[in-house]
Amino acid sequence: MPGLVAAAFSLVRPCLSAHGRRYSSSALKTALQTVIPEKRALLQQVKFERANASLGDDKVANLLGGMRGLQSILWEGSVLDPNNGIRFHGTSIRQCLKLLPTASPGGQILPEAMFWFLLTGKVPTAEQTRQLSADLALQADLPDYVTRLLDSLPRSLHPMTQLAIAVAALNHDSKFSRLYATGMPKSEYWESTFDDVITLIAKLPALAAKIYHNIYNYATSDSLPHVIDRSADWALNYANLLGMHNANFVDFLRLYCSIHADHEGGNVSAHATHLVGSALSDSFLSYSAGLQGLAGPLHGLAAQEVLRFVLQMQKSIPQHPSNDDIAAYLWATLNSGRVIPGYGHAVLRRPDPRFEVLMEYALAKPDIFGDDLFQLVLQISHVAPEVLISHGKTANPYPNVDSLSGVLLYHFGIRETSYYTVVFGVARSMGPLAQLIWDRVLGLPIERPKSLSLQKIIELTSIN
Ligand code: HAX
Questions:
Q1: pTM of the shown model
Q2: By the 8 A CB rule, do 208 and 199 touch?
Q3: Largest CA distance in the chain
Q4: pLDDT tens, 89-141?
Q5: 342 ligand 1 Cβ < 6 A
Q6: CATH of the structural domain 302-411, one choice from 1.20.59.10, 3.40.50.720, 1.10.230.10, 2.40.240.10
Q7: Is the Cβ atom of 346 under 6 angstroms away from ligand 1?
Q8: What is the CATH number of domain 137-297+420-441?
Q9: Residues labelled as active-site residues
Q10: In sequence order, what are the beta bridge partners of 59?
Q11: Which of 20, 39, 192, 430 could make a disulfide contact with 261, Cβ separation 3.0–4.6 Å?
């Protein structure tokens, strides 16, 4: 047996790529490499020659372009307009900020009020919101097995992976899965899904805080400030569990979570949750899949990438940079084949209203305004669109929410950039999980779009 293992390993040899990076090589990989150029050329040819050819009601461009433009997902809570941005039941973010209950007069709206609104389309009263906060706080504790599971993970494992693992593990106690196994009728699916969703949203602050302490504070579960205040709102409990008691941070977190709650159904995390849920996987497995999508650098990981990018830029340019210094740095990034994180969007064609709301919030706070790193982010937001326009590729050269959210977390003292997407993941639970309840209420079917090979596309679009 050891001989066999050694033989298997000898098939995987390291080799250097054209860029000098070290990759493994094997007979299978070599065989694959020989067919890649032809397939890449075929893709380019099909894109070039047949993008506008029809495949039924759709075009080849829809299929090859990441399903852009296909209207194919039912999503009740929000719709994203390329020019006006996100609307929650037809209501803009700014309107929501005026309509929804706040924790205190003049304070920010409560994310659980946003959840109520997303789920029902009705603005909750202050009392209804308080009741929901209390329901969530009541279920906020983590089961022991999840605490032990998190304690067993290596600190070097990315916090998003840890979050996805822990959320998936909560399915141990899924009411939906338990009742499904007993033959629950379809008409009742939504009720146990609702209960699971509340359980999951309730536990996310404690899960995310536990991951934070395990990774960055090196604490064991026993020494953590695991005190859930049953009379506190959801974001206040999250902040407290993180050990962040600054009232301004708590209010910022309420705003952050509310505006990140939903961004219609086609983005990777929302769609992944919806897709996995369509197989009747429970809410925990479904949102774990969503989190794994959120962890990609073109999606939610951009929040982490932006701050790393800005910190690196800060080190490489003069202390008081001119716009030209910043433009030169951005060009160097683009010329090396990388994207400018925090800029562009698959749907939006104007600056992201979530960015605008966060920017207004920040500009009104003298301590944030005076922060050097914030000033750099602000200056980049003036320079980057012009650079991206001259670069000529990006359909939307404007900042998205991720270009600003990280520097605000940094300002408030969360310096661990790899944690930023976790905060996003806690906030983003609201929309996809509200929709999952509707998926069950409406009895939506399992998703099963049709896929085609390049060869089949050529056959279907050839004129005989
Ligand atoms: N910097 C450099 N190039 C960019 C770019 C950017 N910020 N945004 C888009 N482009 C490039 C694309 O890579 C693409 O190039 P290729 O043709 O060589 O592939 C070209 O411009 C056209 O892309 P697009 O149509 O404008 O954008 P897509 O719909 O393909 O992609 C992305 C949208 C958000 C993925 C893209 O703009 C991007 O990579 N942005 C940077 C990463 C980022 O900020 N992601 C967060 C987005 C918001 C979000 O989901 N938050 O969770």
A1: 0.93
A2: no
A3: 73
A4: 999 999 999 999 999 998 999 999 999 999 999 999 999 999 999 999 999 99
A5: yes
A6: 1.10.230.10
A7: yes
A8: 1.10.580.10
A9: 299, 345, 402
A10: 54
A11: 430
